[in-house]
Amino acid sequence: MSTSDRQLVVAVVKGYRRVERVMEGFLELGLPGATIVDAKGMGQIVSTELPVFSGFRSLFPGGGEESYLILSVVATVQVDEAIGMLRDVCEDFSAKGTGIVFTLPVSGFVGPG
Fold first, then answer.
1. 3-state DSSP of the chain
2. pTM score
3. Which of 1, 12, 25, 95 would bridge 99 by S-S if both were Cys, CB 3.0 to 4.6 A apart?
4. pLDDT of residue 11
5. Higher pLDDT, 103 or 61
6. Which of these, 49, 28, 88, 41, lies nearest to 68 by C-alpha position?
7. Around Cβ 105, how many Cβ atoms within 10 Å?
């Protein structure tokens, strides 16, 4: 394993249509590798699976929409482009319940590219 000049881009995105647009955006940026995982946020679980808390639905906007976790290892020089695209697709993540994006440093990397 070697040291890496890469970042792990982690995004939680609401709605499958947005995920499709994110994947198209990654391809347009020349970023062909990402993993998409179905995810459930606290709002989804509290508002639908814990009846005792069902009255708190209004505290969790977007709780009914499907969530997806997107993971992609990206060269550090492309991180700003990737986040910019994610912000465009996800309406800047400014409203509650639209999702989040953050990066983590990758200290080692094995794989193509």
1. CECCCEEEEEEEEECHHHHHHHHHHHHHCCCCCCEEEEECCHHHHHHHHCHHHHHHHHHCCCCCCCEEEEEEEEEHHHHHHHHHHHHHHCHHHCCCCCEEEEEEEECCECCCC
2. 0.82
3. 12
4. 97
5. 103
6. 41
7. 10
